[in-house]
User: What shape does this take?
Amino acid sequence: MAGISITAIPLQALHTPSTSSLAKTTDENRDGLYRALWGWKFCDGCSFAGICTLVTCPGNRLPSLGRYFGHYKELVCSYSHDLEHHRRDAVVSSHDEIFELIRIIKKNPNITRGALAKQVFGSPSNMGIESEQEHVIGLAVKALTMVYSTHWLNQNAEHDNGDLVSPSWLKDVPFYAFFEGLFPMIDHPGFGEDASASFWEMKRNITGSKLIRKGGLSFAPTADLSNHLKLNRNTGVIEIFHHTAFLKENLRITRSMEGPMGVEESLRLGALPRQLALEALDSVQKIIFPLSDPSAVTLLQRLVVEKGFDEDCLRFEASAIREPHETNTRYLYFGARLADIYDELENPTPRGLISRWAKRKGAGHANIATIVAVAIALIFGLVTLGLGGFQAWISWQQWKHPIEGSP
Assistant: This one.
């Protein structure tokens, strides 16, 4: 097959529908995706009538996963639209082929990207085909783990605050090692400890409403788990991984498993490492937007409407996804980022003109109020001087040109 290099097309630019079979997602495609990811088994009502008849059937959770499946459709539509406009053939032409890639990665998380491509597609005939194979594998990886493994997919995503240059899954690197490298464990003092005094103090101070009110920060949704809680100090934007329904499905898989599981073992089950999923979920629902706080719920509702956050963020679940001892989460993956947010609140980054000038001059934030007061006093002084001069000019005009008949 002759290959043509794929050019990135932003998702928001796809105004015309693609005619590719990949762009047509049906309920059957959705159900096939969940079977491949999590081994879902649907009841007869779901399979034949489209109506779930069993309380224990996973089909009951289909509505809560609507935002996640919508993201999957956007990614596949972007890929199929790109193919339609830039080449005549494709490495894959159906959703089932993507699902098979997911199953192979789950079965052998130790596989390298090169070995995976060769096993599924054979040897590429040219660089264009090899690049396209990487993109297709990236689709499967994104659906399975919600992380980007290729620059093409990351460029096609909508980013408000994201890092457009993200790590790629290199050809000779095992998949579990690539994933593990995205999430280094850092035992940060405070957030890495079990309910320490410093933890509770820091936790109380970085709720969403305080970050907005005191820190002048804002929030943007991200569909890349590796970008969760990233703070852009220049813009004051914090990225939030908002696909909480996806996280809950991962936690259901690893619940009641005996003993701790490594990254490779978790991926073999089609799940994120349990600690990672718990931290991502609890950092949203217990720290940044604590659902026990009405103001946090109101803020989150606004973000759902205005920023496109997953509505499932507002649903708190415990018994179905947690072990009895999983009440206070240690933050070994995201502790450093939470601490970075706390530090930003304590030592705000200067963003306005006056703040940046004060920082350069070494005045610091403590003197900004003094600088503003001096500036205001100077302005008032100039205004007063101007008014005095104007009054003097009027008096001089009256003396020079007296009105006739005046004494």
Summary: Strands lie at 218-222, 231-232, 237-241. The two ends are 106 Å apart (CA to CA).
